[in-house]
Amino acid sequence: MKYETFISERDKDGRSIKEIKGTPVVTPVQVHGGKVAFIGSVPQKPPVADGLITDTKNLWIGVLTADCLPVFLIGEGVVGVVHAGWRGTLKGITFNAVSYINRFSRVKKAILGVGICGKCYEVGEDVYKLFPHEYKSCFKEIGEGKFLLDLKEANKIQLKAAGVSEIEDLNLCSVCNNDRFFSYRKEKTDKRTLSAIRLI
Ligand SMILES: [Zn+2]
Fold first, then answer.
1. Which CATH class is domain 3-117+152-199?
2. CA 26 to mean position of chain CA atoms
3. pTM of the predicted model, to two decimals?
4. Mean pLDDT of the region 4-23
């Protein structure tokens, strides 16, 4: 279970990073969905998905975010990475990715990457209402139809439900740590943080 992670910082727009340490990085066309794609080699066309999985050594798989939560998944001889905003979380993207890996391996560890924290992520009652009751503890009502959503908690619920016991949180928020990472909410930027993982 040897792997390496990479998280880009402000000095570089993650969208422009096509290789890391001389090895290519594959990123999907992200659609805030619940679909996961398996990557065996660099594809001619990037898959439309919000989670990538690979068992190929030295092939980086990554997601681009600016507030949404990247989740790294580490199994035996397999790694995954997930892009989880509220829409993808609602569609169970993290649960789906773990379940996919568990069909042929076992996710031993998950790492919650750089994403907006529960103190910074304000959403409306419309979003709150869409989530089923098991997620209500991830919301904090702040009045006038506004709620704070803890995306990391919501994804922890999915990880635990899928049987992942070891969960590491990097405790890095794109808004609180905006000096290091891009935040769409804070600065309305098109630039993105690249979060990538590879087997070595
Ligand atoms: Zn924050």
1. alpha beta
2. 15
3. 0.97
4. 97
